[in-house]
């Protein structure tokens, strides 16, 4: 076990999923989102000025995942402590309960995404389940169940074809939900392994392993972060071959959450950096090599976990993992990205 794991033990009670916190007027420039297979930001016309912070109710909420729903003013965040899902309006400074905690067996949630059909796809952490809701009606559409207790479903990434991939932090598997499974009418369905990582170069040790993930614009690869080992891997969705991404000597880069803009990968972590670290990396054409462009620390981060695009801005969750006396209220912060 590495010294990093000793300093930062991760237990399967709380998720670590998937950039940086600062007022919009003074934020340093980040890469501008560009069109890339559904992973880019879509310009959204808002009322001005927009709030720079969105409060989340509760003193023990510990919000982790976030999903920005395109074509609407809404975003969603979830509580790792009780599974409550909150909905925010980008024009309003406070979020509200969208789905109560504990409902449908959803006792904890981690990463989440919304798809083009208006579905909210939520990784359920140690429940071993993925919950899917209709954001218009709040109706439960699906529960995809691993049937296992030795898992921690951490983050969600969507492919251009509508498939969903889910990282697992304690079991060596990349889980997969097909677009066809999301469209059918069955509520209870098995969650199937997309890629078995047990014999791959990505070695699962004690603590949290598979974490942030993204799908490339052509849908061919999943880029997956190994949180504990400060490593990144390219997973081929067709051949299932797993290749380490060469970081060109960069040290201390971990991926609690990932964002992909063309060949620009942004990784956020609080590992060894309670004030947060955002690393911007430029990837090679085949996604097997990465060159560190810059890192950003501080700027109001309180153990941030993940981010979502909102036009050219970023919406960032201050998770504050394992902090007994967190900064309250818990919040999502808007960052101007260019």
The span between the termini is 39 Å
Main sheet characteristics: 5 strands, mixed
CATH-derived topology: Neuraminidase
Overall number of domains: 1
Oligomer: single chain
Helix content: under 10%
Approximate shape:
globular
CATH level-1 class: Mainly Beta
Strand count: 25
Would you identify the regions where 5 or more consecutive residues have pLDDT less than 50? Answer: 1-43
Q: List the strand order in the largest sheet.
A: 6-7-8-9-13
CATH architectural label: 6 Propeller
The CATH H-level superfamily is TolB, C-terminal domain
Jot down its keywords.
338 residues, mainly beta, Neuraminidase, 5-stranded mixed β-sheet, 4-stranded antiparallel β-sheet, 2 helices, 3% helix, disordered N terminus
Can you walk me through this structure?
This protein has helices at 3-7, 179-183; strands at 53-56, 63-68, 74-79, 85-89, 96-99, 112-114, 119-123, 129-134, 140-145, 153-158, 164-168, 173-177, 188-190, 192-196, 210-215, 221-226, 231-236, 242-244, 257-261, 264-269, 277-283, 290-297, 304-310, 313-318, 330-336. It has 338 residues and is mainly β. The chain has a single domain (3-336), classed as 6 Propeller (Neuraminidase). The longest helix has 5 residues, at 3-7.
């Amino acid at each position: 076990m590495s010294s990093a794991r000793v300093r930062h033990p991760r237990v399967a009670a709380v998720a670590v999923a998937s950039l940086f916190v600062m007022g919009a007027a003074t934020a340093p420039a980040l890469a501008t989102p560009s069109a890339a297979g559904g992973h880019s930001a879509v310009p959204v016309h808002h009322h001005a000025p927009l709030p720079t912070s969105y409060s989340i109710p509760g003193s023990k909420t510990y919000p982790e995942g976030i999903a920005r729903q395109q074509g609407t003013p809404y975003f969603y965040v979830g509580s790792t402590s009780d599974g409550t899902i909150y909905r925010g309006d980008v024009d309003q400074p406070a979020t509200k309960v969208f789905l109560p905690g504990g409902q449908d067996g959803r006792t904890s949630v981690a990463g989440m995404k919304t798809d083009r059909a208006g579905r909210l796809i939520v990784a359920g952490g140690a429940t071993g389940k993925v919950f899917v809701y209709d954001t218009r009606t709040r109706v439960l559409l699906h529960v995809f169940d691993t049937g296992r207790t030795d898992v921690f479903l951490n983050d969600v990434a969507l492919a251009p074809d509508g498939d969903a991939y889910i990282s697992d932090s304690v079991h060596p598997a990349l889980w997969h939900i097909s677009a066809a499974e999301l469209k059918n009418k069955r509520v209870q369905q098995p969650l199937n392994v997309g890629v078995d990582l047990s014999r791959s170069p990505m070695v699962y040790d004690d603590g949290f392993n598979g974490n942030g993930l993204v799908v490339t614009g052509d849908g061919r690869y999943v880029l997956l972060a190994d949180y504990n080992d400060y490593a990144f891997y390219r997973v081929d969705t067709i051949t299932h071959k797993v290749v380490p991404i060469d970081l060109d000597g960069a040290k201390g880069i971990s991926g609690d959450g990932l964002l992909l803009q063309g060949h620009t990968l942004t990784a956020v972590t609080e590992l060894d950096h309670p004030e947060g670290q955002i690393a911007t990396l430029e990837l090679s054409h085949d996604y097997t090599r990465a060159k560190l462009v810059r890192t950003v620390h501080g700027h109001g981060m309180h153990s941030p976990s993940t981010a979502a695009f909102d036009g050219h801005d970023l919406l960032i969750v201050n998770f504050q993992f394992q902090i007994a006396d967190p900064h309250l209220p818990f919040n999502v912060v808007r960052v101007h990205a260019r």
